[in-house]
Amino acid sequence: MTNLPTEQPPPPTRPSPGTTAAVKSPDPRGSSRPAVRWALLAPGIAATLFAVGGRWDVPAAAWISLVVLLRFTRLSRAWSGALWIWAAHTVAAVFWVQESAIGFGPVVVAGAVALAALQTLPFLADRLLTGRLRPGVAALAFPAAVAAAEFLITVVSPFGTAYGSLAVTQYGDLPLLQVVSVTGPWGIGFLIAYFASTVNRLWERPGWRAGLVYAAVLPAVVLAGGARLALAPSTAPTVRVAGISPARTVTDAQRAVFARVPDIATASAATVEPAMTAVENDLLTATRREAAAGAKIVIWPEEAVRTQESHEPAAIAAAQDGARRSGVYLEIGVRVYSRSGPAHDKDEALLIDPRGKVLWTYQKAHPIPGSERFTPGDGRVPVADTPYGRIADVICYDADFPAMMRTRADIMLVPSHDWREYGAAHTEKASLRAIEGGYSLVRQDAEGVSAAYDDEGHVLASTDYFTTERQTMVAYVPVHGVTTVYDRIGDTFAWLCLAGVLALTVTALARPR
Fold first, then answer.
1. Which end of the chain is less congested by CB atoms within 10 angstroms, N or C?
2. Which of 377, 393, 364 is CA-nearest to residue 300?
3. Number of C-alpha atoms within 13 angstroms, CB side, residue 346?
4. Contact 406, 490 (CB under 8 A)
């Protein structure tokens, strides 16, 4: 019997010099070593807890969490991995609610679950698309999806950038944050996610070319931001601005009176007006003091003056007289309790000029979901020309909506009312609007951290309501802002990322795996 030669398999081929080997796509059956996957999930979740826009944020945690969680999903089955990522983001949202002392309710719980689902979509998109795209193109799927998801949160949900924005985790890194003056906050999320996809590409197939593009992009962004900071005019005309919150003694007395009244709107005037008037008198006294010290603009916090609907004209008239006597532009926050029902109460901000004329009455456009039952305003940001530049005004939570904050102004006033656990984090988030819009921003917080920022995000002044005896902040604020790219083109970068994800999806579906 003759032995026939057996057919041998062809030898493995190696890429020729100058070419790049294809990146091995994730195994659709999941990792053959499940212990590796679970070892990644725990630290990924832990890192995410410190990158949620809360008081315990660690900037590096945002970069680490995406790297580790993306590695987990690439080693997992597509849908089971997505479910775990959804659970991880839900845990992070609950942690944020807890550390911020927001309080759980139906709206908060539903919001946490819904936002976690949106934050999961980029991981699912990466898992489904990466194996069908060329490596260089595949690396863009995840960052584009992260930026698009962050943008969609502000479009389809009532939460704005209060939660779910990676940009707020990088507070204080001014060279990096300057990119938001071009891209809006979505550019930071893109860069952090691009880092994660690049690291994972190197993890799967080590090679210097895989990280070459990112190694050029990130330093370019940081260097450009540093140049913007360095080349900005070092001397510019400023105006003295004073932020004033009422003394804790009068606010505590007012709170004690309110605690004994079932319904403030229908309570007898003799019961509630003395405490309300005491707070306003305290604010007027502080306004005269700061005007005498040289302040030209004075800002009171959100709901600084609380008044029944019938007494509102008298409260405003007292503020008008105070502005006229002190010769200042006076911004006052007013909470109006209406007899027509809690949903018809008003949260207002009025700007009064040195002649005592009310230049505008602005009504808060974004009441906090599940917490504030006000009639929302129309969202049109008022602007007034003054000797100290163009002054604009929004109220507290309104500043969590970047599209609304794109306003041609020189100084943005943001009267606010937070609480001890969330005040600092919320003020830090608002600082991004100053860089995006090219204006100085003054945020006076009734029970939190007040701060003033210039158009590059530098802290001009800051004070903590809970650590100072006199509730006053004084800052010298530039009177001229700048026009930013973001102010001109708006959310074009975010829309391009969304279009990019759709284009990559179509491309992936058209290619064999």
1. N
2. 393
3. 20
4. yes
